[in-house]
Amino acid sequence: MANLILDDGAQLYYEDRGKGDPIIFIHGVWMSGKFFKEQVPYFQNDYRVLIPDLRGHGQSEHIHSGHTIANYANDLYQFITKLGLKNVTLAGWSMGAFVVWEYLKQHGDGNIKATIIVDELASDFKWPDFDIGAFDMAILTSFMREIQSNQRGFLSGFIPLMFKEELKEEELDWMLEETTKLPESIASAVLFDQSVVDYRADLAAFNVPTLLCFGKEEKLIPVAAGEHLLEQLPNAKLEIFENSCHCPFLEETHKFNTTVDNFLKGL
Questions:
Q1: What is the pLDDT of residue 218?
Q2: Read out DSSP for 180-244?
């Protein structure tokens, strides 16, 4: 457990375990690094596992500025640079995938060994020429208003949509505790930005080896999103998790961990 001070003075909390080539797990919108709790004991045996809470999320400082994907990617660049990390694997889940792609767009892949993309679209928005998008303006507006007026109630209904099976009460409780650490003002601001970024035109330039991990039993992001990424990314492999929804790293932990491990060791 440690804290990193970014250039604008914001404090970033992160977990740092193990030794070896670094793998950075990047969580989704409103979430935190705790969602990767099942990855730490496995990967720390052969890798240096780094799990930051993104700006404003989890145990990081709840600073009210800088909540765009572009700025999160800049925070990630500072994180890698200040810690002197080399030969890095970036593992982005949900919104974390956007942070990974924005990092590659801004800074290239010269220091990146591989990327792991978990259950995300090239864009979350349902553009006129992108009908597999998750949100249209009406849904996005509704979500933003709910976050402002009924954050805990909204998340109590949203979080179960990330899982195939019904969550146990104690599981939902810790997830709600993590996601409600994020102030409503930040939650709605970053939701808008992450919902309208669009990386479709950039994918062909991302040549770093990429493993795409998608849950088959998806309630939020269709498997078609993974198939689209497989077609557009020049150096990608797609793995479907048959018994998972949005969180294969929690729903099929052993398969996820070994699949990622085998992919990285095969490079």
A1: 83
A2: TTS-HHHHHHHHHHHHH---TTTGGG--S-EEEEEESS-SSS-HHHHHHHHHHSTTEEEEEETT-
Answer whether 127's CB lies under 8 Å from 140's CB. Answer: no
Q: Which residues of the chain have pLDDT under 50?
A: none
AA letter at 118: V
Tokens of 116: 């792991």
Sheet with 210-215, edge to edge strand ranges? 2-5, 11-17, 48-52, 22-26, 88-93, 112-118, 210-215, 236-241
Q: Which residue has the tokens 């729903």?
A: 251
What's the CATH class of domain 2-265? alpha beta
**Alpha helices per DSSP H over 56-166:** 69-82, 95-107, 137-149, 151-158
Beta strand pairing call for 22-26 and 48-52: parallel
Res 132: pLDDT: 95
Count the Cβ atoms, other than its own, within 10 Å of residue 141. 12
pLDDT more than 70, % of the chain = 100
Cβ burial 8-17 (10 Å sphere, 16+ → b, else e)? eebebbbbeb
* 16: β partners: 50
Contacts of 203 (CB under 8 A, 6+ apart): 101, 122, 229, 232, 233
Cα–Cα distance for residue pair 53/70, rounded to 1 Å = 16
- Which amino acid, one-letter code, is at 67? H
Residue type (1 letter), 15 = E
Instruction: Dig out the tokens for 210 from the structure.
Output: 């990429």
